[in-house]
Amino acid sequence: MPFATVTPTATVPPVQAPAQSTTGQIMSSDLEQQREQQGQQMIARAQQLFQAQNYGEAFNLVEQVLQVMPNDLPALILKGQLLGTAGRYAEAQQTIEHILQLDPNNAMGWSMRAVVFSNLGQHQLALEAVERSLELDAQNPETYAIKNNIMGNLAVAQTQTEDQPKSKLNTTETPINIAHGFMLGLALSILGIVLGLVGIGLLTFVASIPYIGLFIACIGMAILCVNAAHGSFRYGFALLLETIMVSVALVAVLGGVYKFGQASLIHQINLHPTLFMPTLTLVVWLIIAAIVPLVLALGGFVGGLPTRLRRKKSR
């Protein structure tokens, strides 16, 4: 019996499940585009509010955008600007660092970083940041304005730093100068009075050559007058006080002699008539020494007031 030939049965390949329709992808893409467009519109609106100085509403819009798109650079840049405008520099700095992490070559981010550093007083870091911004975008005039402002702040800060030791030195030197001026003025006043007394003494005991004694007495008076006027002009109240003290002392001497030694003095003049002129000269000299230097000191004090005020301001 012949072998019947068996014809193989054809096998139908299994039916594969159809791939997911791309309809969902298209819809997702459309939603993403709509979301981006809506975000751009909100950022544009926030920019308008920012320019209108309506910072609160602008910040709220930016926050809404960042909740949906946390890495949106325009939104982050505007947020950094809003925080900087509000003086919230620490938060602004965090936002700017986020921007530069996303885009290290973002010139606007480096400019904002420079402004924040400058406002925080870190002028050298601000200068480095603005230089980096200019490397990335050398055509931005606002960046040059920021750099000029930073350079000015840096110069002012350096000047203040240099002036601090000088101002400390001046504050310690001023009392020393005043004390030195007071002691020098007192010494010159004593010298003038001594010369006046020596001159009057020469008039008394060397009557044959009265011009020498008169000359010395005049030198003493000149020292008193010049010291009072110049010292009060330069040192102010310290030398005025010294002149007042000397004048009061001279008036006290005259008053004491008049009250307690008048009778004895008259008796001596009656016994020695030659003492009359020297005594009269001494009294007149003491009166002049008590009045004229004080008047000159008052004039010097008032006249030197503007100069002393300018000197204090320059310190």
UniProtKB/TrEMBL annotation:
SMART domains: TPR. It holds the Pfam family TPR_19. It comes from the Bacteria. TPR repeats lie at residues 73-106, 107-140. Residues 1-22 are annotated as: Disordered. The chain crosses the membrane at residues 182-203, 209-229, 236-260, 280-305. Residues 1-20 have a biased composition (Low complexity). The keyword Cell membrane does not apply. Keywords: Membrane, Repeat, TPR repeat, Transmembrane, Transmembrane helix. PANTHER family: CELLULOSE SYNTHASE OPERON PROTEIN C, TPR REPEAT-CONTAINING PROTEIN MJ0263. This is Uncharacterized protein. The lineage of its organism: Bacteria, Bacillati, Chloroflexota, Ktedonobacteria, Ktedonobacterales.
